[in-house]
Write a structure and sequence with these properties.
The complex is a heterodimer.
Chain A (H helix, E strand, L loop, with lengths): L1 H32 L1 H4 L3 E2 L2 E2 H33 L7
Antiparallel strand pairs in A: 1-2
Helix pairs in contact in A: 1-3
Chain B lengths: L2 H22 L5 H6 L6 H12 L2 H14 L4 H25 L4 H8 L3 H33 L4 H51 L4 H4 L11 H11 L12 H16 L2 H4 L8 H37 L9 H9 L2 E3 L23 E5 L5 E3 L11 E3 L4 H8 L4 H39 L5 H24 L5 H14 L1 H10 L5 H25 L18 H18 L6 H11 L2
Antiparallel strand pairs in B: 1-4, 2-3
Helix pairs in contact in B: 1-8, 1-16, 3-8, 3-13, 4-13, 4-16, 5-11, 5-13, 5-22, 6-7, 7-8, 7-16, 7-17, 7-18, 7-20, 8-13, 8-16, 8-17, 10-13, 11-18, 11-21, 13-15, 15-16, 16-17, 18-20, 18-21, 20-21
The chains are: A mainly alpha, B mainly alpha.
Chain lengths: 87, 582
């Protein structure tokens, strides 16, 4: 049981690290640190860095949360498929 | 029908709806009162979370702030939504699994100490009241402008409404009213945004209209805005004026502050299962993103409309909204060059920044100010940023029912957040202070009674904040975020992800975060405001961003104190193992 929990927790941490990296890139990265450089690229009326700072990052955030729901549900199933949730 | 009548009608109808829902779903047990019986559907909970979380400052102030800050204003957009990701991924599912009623409950149990619980209660009450003060000011602005009643009476009406559904309904009542409030709020935000987007760019989707060309020209809206703002002596709208380190810290403080906001965390305690807590966070962010991706478009439209409709216009023929907001004291005009026309450009128009009105009227009919004009620039207009969203439909000359709708939306935003906060305050007093600390013998019925008394007292205090407002809505709220980031958030995060952190570490961490952040903010904002400029800031970090540094100090203190004190007991180890399992 303990071994199973450990491997569940480790996979969970990996998923979190992956998703939080994207979170960091979309906001602090593209929206602030490299924002001025990205502003050189213009798509329609938007400079790309400005777009990431004001809208793009938010769209990415929504995708991150749904990716998390999907990945974690799959992980739960793999590790705890036999146990019914006792909550 | 007249706009005034319509506004009474819309606001009255929505209030009746909220009270009706509260009556239908009133709480019968402490379980209902604190966590709505843990039986809320994830989609409904997502909407309620969105309403709870989008406060008066999201609805009323944010777009106005961004309209005047341009790209610098992105910190609010990224900070508040990004913080939501932090909350959903790093905290919500684990706290739901823990399965108790309040945030101090978690901290008290995880750090096996009633002192830790008490420190958490203090931080939490401090954060909640700072935040609630901002909501009440929002209620006051809406009432005084749209219903033309005194701000004080407006705040009192708001208090009575919240009293009804927070005190009677508890979490259950609040949750279902918040679902209704979300619908009112989002409709009220999107309708004017869509109208204005069509008027300015011909594109019915504000998110896209924002990047589109102006009607009847091939110039992009944002390029035009850059050009106009530069001509008036501001920085270009799509470029930052703040330094990257400051932007980074402000965004981080807002993000981690969101993670530590107790009234949002507690929402995840209301769903039936851990997997529902995750799903509900996802729905909530969709509902939030709908408003948050519209906001920057509203800001850009408002800025351009605002300048177009007053620049070089003679005061005697100035639009009505300009004079109406002047009457309330949120706009002022001083004819520096005596040409009877309004000139707007960068810089503070008045010495002392805020207008100090005299009783007299000038020769154009404007309100005469006691302030001396600031002769360092040609700007003649003072405008409070909080009015932009509310004035936007008038500036764009939309029909009267749209203002009525916006008034109802602004109130929904303020009241839903205020109710969530009141619940947190009352449950931390009745549950954490009385039941778990000072009066462990009280039964459930008595605890419920104390919870209701505590929310009544909290409503009265919140109302006083509204009548004697401590400052700008957004500024006050920034304070709350800084404190949440530097106190509650680290204790929660480390409580889940570190088994080594013990009570000595957590308590000293929270206290040092609280002390550092609040003294920095109080020094620059209250004791020595004239000193509040980038040259004097520590590492160039503004008071708005200092919560991030406070958070790092909290982490550092907590880990070093833990490393030379005892490991947490084995029960705590088991508890952590348990919350890590879904």
């Amino acid at each position: 049981m303990n071994k199973k929990n450990n491997s569940y927790w480790k996979s969970n941490l990996k998923i979190l690290a992956f998703l939080m990296t994207i979170w960091f890139l979309a906001s602090f990265g593209f929206g602030i640190i490299w924002s001025d450089a990205l502003d050189e690229i213009q798509i329609g009326g938007f400079k790309l860095g400005f777009w990431f700072a004001q809208q793009g990052s938010i769209f990415v955030f929504v995708i991150i949360i749904f990716a998390y729901v999907y990945l974690l549900n799959r992980l739960d199933k793999k590790h705890f498929s036999n146990n019914s949730e006792n909550d | 029908m007249e706009t005034q009548t319509l506004t009474y009608l819309f606001v009255g109808a929505t209030f009746a709806l909220y009270i009706g829902i509260a009556f239908w779903s009133r709480a019968k047990s402490t379980n209902d009162f604190y966590v709505a019986g843990k039986g809320v559907n994830p989609v409904a909970n997502g909407m309620a979370t969105a309403a709870d979380w989008m406060s008066a400052s999201s609805f009323i102030s944010m777009a106005g702030l961004i309209a005047f800050l341009g790209k610098d204003g992105s910190v609010y957009l990224m900070g508040w939504t990004g913080g939501y990701v932090v909350l959903a991924l790093l905290l919500a599912p684990y706290l739901r699994k823990f399965g108790q009623y309040t945030v101090p409950d978690f901290i008290g149990t995880r750090y096996y100490s009633s002192t830790a619980r008490l420190v958490a209660v203090i931080c939490l009450i401090f954060v909640s009241f700072t935040y609630i003060a901002g909501q009440m000011r929002g209620v006051g602005i809406v009432f005084s402008r749209f219903l033309e009643v005194d701000i004080d009476i407006g705040v009192m009406i708001g208090m009575i409404i919240v009293f009804f559904y927070a005190v009677m309904g508890g979490m259950k009542g609040i949750t279902y009213t918040q679902v209704a409030q979300y619908c009112v709020m989002i409709f009220a935000y999107l309708v004017p945004a869509i109208f204005i987007s069509i008027l300015i760019t011909g594109n019915p989707v504000p998110q896209l209209g924002f990047g589109d060309t102006l009607v009847g020209s091939s110039t992009y809206l944002l390029d035009k805005l850059d050009q106009v703002t530069v001509d008036l002596g501001f920085g270009a709208y799509t470029e930052n004026t703040k330094t990257n380190i400051d932007l980074f810290c402000i965004t981080a403080a807002l993000m981690f502050g969101t993670g530590g906001l107790p009234h949002v965390i507690v929402r995840f305690f209301t769903v039936p299962k851990v997997s529902d807590a995750r799903k509900s966070a996802g729905y909530a962010l969709i509902f939030i993103a709908l408003l948050y991706t519209t906001a920057p478009a509203v800001s850009a439209f408002a800025r351009i409309n605002f300048i177009d409709s007053i620049q070089n216009v003679e005061y005697s023929v100035a639009p009505d909204w300009f004079k109406n907001w002047e009457d309330i004291g949120l706009i002022a005009w001083q004819d520096k060059n005596n040409d009877q026309s309004i000139q707007y450009s960068s810089g503070n128009a008045l010495e002392g920044v805020r207008p100090d009105y005299s009783e007299q009227r000038g020769k154009n009919g404007e309100r005469i100010l006691n302030n001396k004009p600031n002769q360092n620039n040609d700007n003649e207009v003072y405008i409070d940023r909080d009015i932009i969203v509310l004035a936007n439909p008038e500036i764009a000359k939309l029909p009267g029912w749209v203002f009525a709708l916006v008034a109802a939306g602004g109130l929904a935003a303020a009241l839903s957040t205020a109710a969530g906060l009141l619940l947190v305050i009352s449950s931390s007093i009745s549950h954490d202070l009385l039941k778990k600390t000072f009066m462990p013998k009280i039964n459930e019925k008595q605890e419920l009674l104390y919870a209701r008394i505590a929310s009544t007292v909290a409503i009265i205090i919140a109302g006083l904040f509204g009548i004697y407002p401590p400052g700008f809505v957004a500024q006050v709220v920034a304070f709350a975020f800084g404190l949440a980031a530097s106190t509650i958030f680290p204790a929660l995060l480390m409580g889940i992800f570190s088994k080594r952190l013990n009570k000595e570490g957590a308590i000293s961490g929270m206290i040092s975060g609280l002390f550092f952040t609040s003294s920095y903010i109080i020094y620059f904002k209250f004791l020595n405001p004239s000193f509040n400029s980038p040259d004097n800031w520590f590492l160039g970090i503004s008071p708005e961003g200092i919560g991030f540094l406070g958070m790092i100090i909290n982490f550092a203190v907590a880990f070093s104190v833990s490393s030379f004190t005892n490991r947490p007991p084995s029960e705590v180890n088991e508890m952590i193992d348990n919350i890590r399992r879904p």
